[in-house]
Amino acid sequence: MAKVSFLGLGVMGYPMAGHLLRKGGHEVTVYNRSAAKAAQWVKEYGGKSAPTPREAAQGADFVLMCVGNDDDVRSVAYGDNGALAGLKKGALLIDHTTASAVVARELHAKCKEKGVGFVDAPVSGGQAGAVNGQLGIMCGGEQADYDNALAVLNVYAKMCALIGAPGAGQLTKMVNQVAIVGILQGLSEALNFGMRAGLDMEKVISVISQGAAQSWQMQNRWKTMVEGKFEGFGFASDWMRKDLNIALAEAKKNGAYMPGTAVIEQYFGRIAAAGHGRWDNTALMSLLKS
Question: Does the annotation count 252 as an active-site position?
Answer without folding.
Answer: no
